[in-house]
Amino acid sequence: MDIATTPTNPEGNPELADAAPSPAEPPVILRKDYTPFPWRVPQTKLAFGLGVETTKVVATLNVERNPDAEATQELRLNGDSLKADAVLIDGEPAADWTMDGPDLVVTLPGKSHEVTIETTIDPSANTTLMGLYASNGMLCTQCEAEGFRRITFFPDRPDVLSTYTVRMEGPKDQFPILLCNGNNTASGDGENGTHWAEWHDPWPKPSYLFALVAGDLVANSGTFTTMNGRVVELNVWVRAEDLPRTDHAVESLKKSMKWDEETFGREYDLDLYNIVAVSDFNMGAMENKGLNVFNTKYVLADTDTATDADFDAVEGVIAHEYFHNWSGNRITCRDWFQLSLKEGFTVLRDQLFSQDMQGEAVKRIEDVRILRAAQFPEDAGPLAHPIRPDSYREISNFYTATVYNKGAEVIRMMRTMAGEEKFRAGTDLYFDRHDGEAATCEDFITAIEDGAGLELAQFRRWYRQAGTPRVEVSQELAGDGLAVTLKQTVPPTPGQDVKGAMPIPLRVAVHCRETGAIGAEQLIVLTGDEERFTLPLSGPVPVLSINRGFTAPVVIERDLERDDLVFLAASDDDPFARYEAMQELVVKHLVAAASGDLDEAGRAAGKTAIGDAMRAIVTDGDLDDSMRGELMTLPSETYLFEAMATGNRKADPGAIHNEREQLKAAIGFTLKRELESLYARVVDVSFDDPAGRGARKVKSIIAGIFAASDPERAAIMAARQFDEADNMTDRQGALMVLCGLETPARAERLAAFYDRYQSNALVVDKWFTLQALSLHGDVQEHVKALAEHPDFTMSNPNRVRSLYMAFAGNPQGFHAVDGSGYKLIADVILALDPINPQTAARFVPALGRWRRIESVRAGLMKAELERISRAEGLSRDTFEQVTRSLEG
Ligand code: TRP
Ligand code: ZN
C-alpha cells in the first residue's frame, strides 16, 4: 500500500538509500518557531489521469523567491508516502533533487522557476481517507490539514497561496462527473472511452482547500441570486438513489447564503457552489473552495430516515462550511496553530445562524450542553490546550472541542462585550483588512479592538490559557443593594501551572423570591482575581441570576438554597438561567448522593425539591414543548463526572449511573399523573403541526422516564410509539427506550427496524448506535456481537463510530468495573490505527480521563493506555494522544 516505504535516492548514494527510517518519536512542532516560506507559488497546474487503482499526477508549480523571507536556494516540498516518477526544472529533467525523509528537496539558483513533478498514487489502497481516495466507486479528496502532500509534493502549509488550474481525465463510464474547485472552463471526450474537464479557481488558496471529485453522481440543483445580483448555480451531488433526500440540504444552503449577507455582509464570490456527499469521511464536512465535500450524514435527510436533530445538524453543517468561504477561505490561517481563527469564528457564525433558524433559547442550551459534554472534560484532563495551542506533533489531534467550541465561546464573549452592532463593525474591519491573507488570531483580536472599540489586552489570555475558569459567588445585603463578591481561579493544566485572571463577562439580574419580581439585567465584567459588585434589589428576598445566556464559558460555584433554585427553575425570565437552575438542582443532589454525603432524609428532601421543580416545568402552560424538553432533560453522566471530580474528589461512574437512574424512577413515580397527561396531549400532535417538534421531543423523554419507574408500561408505550410512528424521530426515540428494556418487544422492533432500513447506511448506523448506547445490562455483549455483524466494517468511519464511539460514550458499558469496556476500546484503537489513524486517535480521550476517576477504574484505564503505548508502529496521531494521556 505504501508507495515509498524507503526514501529514494536519485543520485544512487548507497549510504542514503540504505539508511533505515529511524523509529524516532514524531517531532514536536512549536508555534513560536513560525517562519515564512522562502518561496511563493503564484500558479499551480495539476493534471490528473484518474483511476481507482492508479492515478497519475503531474504538478507544475511556478515558484519565485519570497521577498519577505530569508533567501535560500533550497525548495522543500512536502510529501507523505509519495515517490516522484520525474522531476523537471524549467522543463528539463532536474539534475539534483533529493528526498529528505518524506520531503522532496530541489535546489533553485534563480529568482523564479517552473518545477514539474510526476507522481503515481493508488486511491483504492488509501484507507486513511486523507489525500485522494476511493469511496463507493468514486474518487474524492480530503486535504485539510496535511493531506495534499499525499497527492503531490508541495509546500503543504496554509500560508502558501496559489491559483490552481486543473485538468482531470478518466474513464467516462466510471466517472461521468468530474468536479474541482472554481469554474469548469473546458471539457471534452478523449480516446478509449475517456473524457476530461478543466477547472480554474480564480481565488488564490492554500493547498488544504484543494478538492476534486470523480464519480457517477446526480445533482439536486438550484440557484441563488446574491445581494449584488450575481446568479450562483448550486448543486448537491449524491448517488442516484439518495437524490430524494437532498431538498433539505439545498434549502439550507440558500438560507445560509442569505443569512450571511444580512448578518455579516458577506457575499458569495463564484458562479458555482458544489457540495458532494461521500459515505467514507473522517469528519463532518470540508469547506474546499467552491467544492465542499460532505459526510453523507450531513447532507441526506427526509422525515422517514432522519430525526429532527438530524435535520438541524444538516442545516448547521451546511451553514458552517458555507460560512468558511469568508472565515477560512478568503481569509485563511497563517499556520495551524491559528486554527481557531477560522474554526472558532465559523462555529460562532453557524451557532448564530441556527439560533435565528431554530429558536435562540433552545439552540443556546444545546450548544452549552455540547460544550460541557465535550469541551469541559477536555479542558480538565491531560489533553487540555489553549484555543490557540503552542505545540503539536500531529495537527489532526487539534481539531478539538476546545479549538472549535470554546473558540466560538471566546469570540461570543467579545460580541457580548461590544454589543451586536459594534461587533459587526469589528468583523467588517477584519474581513476588509485581511481579505486574501493568511492571518493570525492576533490579527482577528486587533481588528475587533479597532473596529468594535474594545480593549482586549487582558482578554488575550483566553487565547493563551487552557482550563475552565471557576467563579465562586458569595453575596450579602448591603443597604438597598445586593453586594456580590466574585472570585475566579483558573485551574492548572499540562504545561501551565500558574494563570492570570481572565476577563469574564456575566449578564446578571436580581429577582425576588417573595414577590416574584424579575430584576433588570446588566452586564458586569470580572477582570481581577476577586471583585465586588453592588446590584440593585427588586424585592426583599433577593435571588441572583448569573451568567444568564451563558455569557462566559466558566463554572459558577454558588451555594444557593434549594428553594432559590426551585424558584429560578420555575420563574427566571432568561431561558438559559432557568435551565441552569434545574441542572444545578439535579447536579447538587446527584453528586452528593453519589459521594455518599446524603442520609435518607437528605435524599428524600432532594428528590422532593427536584420533583416540585419538575412538576412546575411539566405543567407550565406557557412553556413551549421544545423548551420544556430541555428543562426536563437531566444532566448527562459525563457532566456529572465533571461536577463530582472537583478538588480531591474523584468521579465514581457506577454510583453516578445508579443515582441518576434512581432519580429518573423517582420522578416517574412522583409525577406519574402529570407525565401521563402531558404524554396524552403530545402524542396527538401531528407531524406537520408547528408544535410537532416539541411534542416529539417531550414524548420520548417521558417514555425514557417511565422506563426507569415502570418498565412494563414503558415497553408498551414505546412499542406503540414505534409501530404508529410516521417519522424517524418517534421511531428512533421509541427504539432507544426499548433497547434499554428486558422485553420481547426489544428484539422484535430492532429486527423490524433493520429489515426496513438495511439498504440505508445512515439508518443502519443508527441501528448500531441505539444498541451500543442502550441502558441494557448486556450492552457489552451486544456490542461484541454487533462487531461480527455482516454490516460491520472497520474501514468506514461512520460505521466504526456508530458502534464504538457510542459504546465509549455509554458509561454503563464503558466503565464496567472489571475494565472490560476499557479493554474493548483499547483493542479498537489498536486494530484501527493501521487502517485510519485519525479516527483511531479520536478514541483515546475516553481512556485519557483516568486521573479524575476513582482508583480501581483509573488503574485499569491507565493499564490499557500503557498497553497501547507499547504497540509497535503506532501512528503519530495515536502516539501523541496516548503519550499526553499518560503524562498529563
Ligand atoms: N475544516 C473542516 C471543518 O471544520 C474540518 C475537517 C474536515 C477536517 N475534514 C477534516 C479536519 C479532516 C481534519 C482532518 O469544517
Ligand atoms: Zn470548520
Describe the structure.
By secondary structure, this protein is an alpha+beta fold. It folds into four domains: 165 residues, Peptidase M1, alanyl aminopeptidase, C-terminal domain (Zincin-like fold), CATH 1.25.50.10; 269 residues, Immunoglobulin-like, CATH 2.60.40.1730; 131 residues, Neutral Protease Domain 2 (Neutral Protease, domain 2, Orthogonal Bundle), CATH 1.10.390.10; 91 residues, Aminopeptidase N, middle-beta domain (Immunoglobulin-like, Sandwich). Helix content is 42%, strand content 21%. The protein has 29 helices and 31 strands. The strands form eight sheets. An eight-stranded mixed beta sheet has the order 6-5-9-3-2-12-15-14, with no helix packed on it. Helix 11 crosses helix 15, helix 20 packs antiparallel against helix 21 and helix 25 runs parallel beside helix 28. It is globular and about 85 Å long. The N terminus is likely disordered. The site of tryptophan has 13 residues, from strand 20 and helix 3.
Number of helices: 29
How do the strands of the widest beta sheet line up side by side?
Answer: 6-5-9-3-2-12-15-14
Q: How many DSSP-defined strands?
A: 31
Poorly predicted runs are 1-22
The figure for the number of domains is 4
By CATH, the architecture of the largest domain is named: Sandwich
CATH fold naming of the largest domain: Immunoglobulin-like
Strand content: 15-25%
**CATH homologous superfamily name of the largest domain?**
tricorn interacting facor f3 domain
The major β-sheet equals: 8 strands, mixed
Oligomer type: single chain
Mean pLDDT: 96
Which CATH class of the largest domain is shown? Mainly Beta
Helix content: 40-55%
Q: State the secondary-structure class.
A: alpha+beta
Terminus-to-terminus distance: 35 Å
The bound ligands are: tryptophan, zinc ion
Shape: globular
Radius of gyration: 28 Å
